[in-house]
């Protein structure tokens, strides 16, 4: 039901930190804070980060008296490498900090990523870097749908829209060179106009028709029908219209 859909966000927030047999673990990455009692002492841990658009995590651990406990930090498996306070950490595992904690301490985690082309069905590929999947951003044409005077509840600004492509989308990659540009975090990061990250890729147009107004599942053929051009990629969640799975083209 619709009213259950929003439960995911508070439940996700509740899952960022969890207790373990010997202390506390950071199990999911998001700016968050936890305060609890361990061994008759108060422990406060905060995480500050712009993840998934940034690869740096800053933990602040504060205790009201010297306390012995473990702090485990989950290192995502998609990282090519990672470091915790300069020490190498293993991707896909928890990095364990077992010590006597005194006062306040800062822990910095750096997650390193590589661009990966994921093989998909029908000999297509998708671009992923770290936690983000990237799509070719399609320019949009928004048209209000007019249902007439009898539909007073569906007039602007509560009307429906159809969103049509206003730029080419029938592309294939010609190489694996993806360049990234970081724009900083705005008020609405998951937005085509305010995406914190943009990428560029080299592509060519191919013969990829529509069937009854809908893009065909696969292109007709994979021969280039244009010169090589550069297109913009955005994180999948920052797009409304997108092409995510496309082929490699030999030129």
Explain how this protein is built.
By secondary structure, the chain is an all-beta fold. It folds into two domains: 2-112, Sandwich (Immunoglobulin-like), CATH 2.60.40; 115-243, no CATH class. The protein contains one helix and 22 strands. Strands 11, 12, 13, 16, 17, 18, 21 and 22 form an eight-stranded antiparallel sheet that branches. Strands 3-4-5-10-7-8 form a six-stranded antiparallel sheet, with no helix packed on it. A four-stranded mixed sheet has the order 1-2-6-9, with no helix packed on it. The longest helix is centred in the N-terminal third of the chain and has 7 residues, at 8-14. The protein is globular and about 70 Å long. The protein starts with 7 loop residues before the first helix and ends in an 8-residue tail after the last strand.
What's the topology here?
Blueprint (H helix, E strand, L loop, with lengths): L7 H7 L2 E3 L3 E4 L5 E7 L2 E9 L6 E8 L3 E8 L6 E4 L2 E3 L4 E8 L2 E9 L2 E6 L3 E6 L2 E6 L2 E5 L16 E5 L5 E3 L5 E4 L14 E9 L4 E2 L2 E2 L13 E7 L6 E2 L8
Secondary-structure element order, N to C: HEEEEEEEEEEEEEEEEEEEEEE
β-strand number: 22
Note the beta-strand portion.
Answer: over 45%
- Rg estimate, integer Å: 23 Å
Number of helices: 1
Mean pLDDT: 93
How many domain units? 2
Q: What does the main sheet amount to?
A: 8 strands, antiparallel
Task: Decide which structural class fits the backbone.
Answer: mainly beta
Distance between the termini: 49 Å
How helical, in percent, are the residues? Answer: under 10%
Describe the global form. Answer: globular
* Quaternary: single chain
The unreliable regions are none
